[in-house]
Amino acid sequence: MNEEALNASIRKFLRTVGVNSQREIEQAVRAAVQARPETRALAATMTLEIAELGLKVTYDASIDLQ
After folding, report:
1. Is residue 33 packed enough to be buried (19+ CB in 10 Å), middle (13-18) or exposed (0-12)?
2. Which of 6, 10, 39, 66 is the most exposed place for a label (fewest CB within 10 A)?
C-alpha cells in the first residue's frame, strides 16, 4: 500500500465532501430561516460509512446560526 497515495486520496475525498456538504447545508439553512426566523441552532448528524471496510461512524454537533 502506498501511504502517500492513500493520504492524498482520503484528503481529496474529504475536500469534496466538505465543500459539497457546506453548500447543501447553507442552501437548506437559508430556506429554513426564512420559514422559521427564530431558529438559533440546528442539531446535525454526519455519518461516514465505508461498507467494504465495515466502517460506520456518526458525528453529532450543533450548527449555530447566531
Report:
1. middle
2. 66
Look at the pTM and tell me if it is higher than 0.85: no
42 within 8 A of 61, measured Cβ to Cβ: no
| Cα distance between residue 18 and residue 24, in whole Å | 10
Structural domain range at position 29: 3-64
- The domain total for the chain is 1
Cell of 33: 430561516
Specify the 3-state DSSP secondary structure of 30.
helix
Task: Read off the pLDDT of residues 6-63 as tens digits, 9 standing for 90 and up.
Answer: 999 999 999 999 999 999 999 999 998 899 989 899 999 999 999 999 999 999 999 9
